[in-house]
Amino acid sequence: MSTQVSTPFTNLQLELLRVYAMHLPDEDLLAIRRMIAKYLLEKARGKATHISKEKGYNQATLEKWLNEES
Q: How many CA atoms lie within 13 A of 39 on its CB side?
């Protein structure tokens, strides 16, 4: 029988806690933060591109949205 322990942390948070427990120099921590940000940005861009293609959005659609009055 397997017992699963519930924590208030996500799997990402637990992984980051392991990294931050390594006492890395500040420059390494900054580089890791930048890598994570770059990864998440690329993932978001990919998802946005997929949705845009799926819905038939193009540059004209985006420009129209930008010029609409709120």
A: 6
51: closest CA among 43, 3, 65? Answer: 43
Does 54 score more than 80 pLDDT? Answer: yes
Q: Give the DSSP letter string of 28-64.
A: HHHHHHHHHHHHHHHHHHHHHHHHHHHHT--HHHHHH
pLDDT value at position 1?
55
Residue type, 63: E
Average pLDDT, the chain: 89
C-alpha–C-alpha distance, residues 67 and 62, integer Å: 9
4 token code pair: 């699963």
Mean pLDDT of the 15-44 span? 91
